[in-house]
What does this fold into?
Amino acid sequence: MKVWLDGKLVDESEARLSVFDHGLLYGDGVFEGLRFYGRRVFRLDEHVKRLFDSARAILLKMPWTHEEVVGYVLDTIRANGLDDGYVRLVVTRGTGSLGLNPHLCEKPSMFIIASTITLYPEECYRNGMPVATCATRRPAPAALMPQVKSLNYLNNVMAKVEALQAGAMEGVMLNEQGYVAECTGDNLFLVKNGELRTPPVSDGALDGITRQVILELAERESLPVREASVTRYDIYTADECFLTGSAAEVIPVATLDGRKIGETCPGPVTARVTEIFHEETRATGTPID
Ligand code: PMP
It folds into this structure.
């Protein structure tokens, strides 16, 4: 596998960063995860924009332009000869001293991995996935801005461990007020009386690109949809629930905390949303060639 690292496509065994990189020492950096389908990169521009916004929010000055980053992603996919897969794009603060001060870091590093990903077993896409509420909360916006896709994922990792220990595959994370924010690596939607609902970003969710695509497609298809606060009660009593993410795509939720959600899983709205999402991934995207 060839990895793009600071301007060069190198063998994966050569793709190394310094132990003094603040990305490693402090989780000081930002990242993106995106998909390509049939040699077309899905929502590439949106992902690169979010990467630049995340970097800007943490005062990390990107030494590359938007267009350059787009080109590097395409170069990396081409170099690995893949038709379908997943790209991980990471920008670290760079090599610095052992102190926190990011201004002492020389220059950011960027690496791009093009590979494949299977986040959840196929069975979960067919019959739904068990999820559990985590005791670990999403950090308050005053602690860590939830829109920033930063390398500091320990909060999510701990929440994921809780979900796994509860016998579930993904964890629902609440904000400080007890409202549902999102899951550890996915956004959440529910369906009640034919209407789709997802927590607003202001409730602590990452502004997921798949979430945005679903909002867009629902409007296009005239499916009623609303961004509004969600409680666990709303999920327990929902007709359907599903999660979205670049890696997970659209995945139905069968149970929350061992309680069955709705009559059938996936329910009709989830099935329709999944179908139109797949159509969109097949019909759009930036060509690799
Ligand atoms: N929430 C979190 C915490 C995530 O890490 C991700 C991405 N894995 C998502 C939501 C989904 O975002 P996107 O649709 O942009 O991949």
